[in-house]
């Protein structure tokens, strides 16, 4: 494969290469227009909280979550996160549509917190990384160098509840092969090889506690909206063993993934395939919403 356009083959990036990569990025859509404005009117019983701002441009990138006006200790608590990878659009827009259309109906059953766009710079530039060439979704650990991860972790830790459920909304796209994984290999000075992009929806469960019945409930719900990714010829999805239809496992805490930042008993990462011939942006949003609704319904 032709080498990535930045860097020297086999040599990890230094500050010069990272700056060259950052300078090659551009704004392609508006966080203010596509995200923030949709949080201006919320369902009854919920409020918008600004929990921080990204230091690259604090006025352009305030960070918001939607939280209950009051927490009820007798109810389970649910955390929904989207846009950890800003380019994964339906994670953001699906979370926003869920807030607008469905959040209020769950208020009597659970304390639901939604952080719809954790990486707004990534959202605007359609990127996996932040401007520091750091992947926020490998950065959920103490003293994280990624402000996207550090600020949401601090906020979640400050809330007057512990979470029973965490649903982290993602996509697997064709650009993983055409852009993001080649860039990662170039940055690390390694060799990149294509992998098979799954054609359909799947979930990633935590290795230590997969809760397969919970994952199956999500898969069954999403089946009504879009197709489930089949395993490849090796019985895998993105290199991981398929443990149930459309379900693989990662060690989320060891990999410092967003899905590992709480000690919730029920955790899933959704993966929607927006590049399918059978998908549209709204189908992808609806798949994310179906997953969220099924995840909450499974425990309330």
Automatic annotation (TrEMBL):
Span of domain Peptidase M14: 27-300
Keyword check for Cell membrane, yes or no: no
Q: Name one GO molecular function term.
A: zinc ion binding
- CDD domains named among the record's database cross-references: M14_REP34-like
Family annotation (PROSITE patterns): PEPTIDASE_M14
Names of the cofactor(s): Zn(2+)
Report the domain of life of the source organism.
Bacteria
User: Is Metal-binding among the key words of this record?
Assistant: yes
Any single biological process term in GO: proteolysis
Pfam families attached here?
AstE_AspA_cat
InterPro entries, per the entry: AstE_AspA_cat, Peptidase_M14
Q: What UniProt keywords apply to this chain's record, in alphabetical order?
A: Hydrolase, Metal-binding, Zinc
Query: Which family would the database say this protein is a member of?
Result: Belongs to the peptidase M14 family.
From the Swiss-Prot or TrEMBL record, give the protein name.
Answer: Peptidase
Please name the source species.
Answer: Alteromonas profundi
């Amino acid at each position: 494969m032709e080498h990535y356009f930045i860097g020297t083959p086999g040599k990890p990036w230094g500050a010069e290469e990272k700056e060259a990569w950052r300078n090659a990025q551009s704004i392609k859509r508006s966080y203010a227009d596509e995200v923030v404005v949709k949080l201006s009117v919320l369902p009854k019983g919920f409020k918008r909280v600004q929990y921080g701002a990204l230091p690259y441009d604090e006025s352009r990138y305030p960070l918001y979550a939607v939280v209950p006006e009051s927490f009820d200790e007798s109810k389970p608590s649910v955390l929904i996160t989207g846009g950890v990878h800003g380019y994964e659009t339906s994670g953001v827009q699906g979370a926003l549509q869920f807030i607008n259309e469905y959040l209020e109906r769950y208020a009597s059953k659970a304390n639901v917190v939604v952080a719809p766009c954790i990486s707004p710079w990534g959202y605007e530039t359609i990127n996996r990384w932040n401007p520091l060439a750091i992947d926020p979704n490998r950065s959920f650990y103490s003293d994280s160098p990624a402000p996207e991860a550090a600020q949401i972790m601090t906020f979640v830790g400050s809330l007057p509840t512990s979470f029973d459920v965490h649903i982290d909304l993602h996509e697997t796209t064709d650009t993983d092969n055409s852009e993001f994984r080649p860039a990662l290999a170039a940055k690390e000075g390694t060799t990149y090889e294509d992998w098979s992009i799954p054609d359909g929806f799947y979930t990633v469960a935590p290795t230590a506690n997969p809760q397969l019945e919970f994952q199956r409930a999500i898969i069954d719900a999403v089946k009504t909206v879009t197709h489930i990714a089949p395993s490849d010829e090796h019985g895998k999805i993105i290199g991981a063993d398929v443990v149930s239809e459309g379900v693989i496992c990662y060690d989320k805490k060891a990999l410092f993934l967003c899905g590992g930042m709480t000690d919730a008993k029920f955790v899933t990462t959704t993966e929607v395939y927006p590049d399918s011939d059978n998908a549209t942006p709204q189908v992808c949003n609806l798949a994310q919403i179906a997953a969220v609704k099924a995840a909450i319904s499974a425990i309330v």
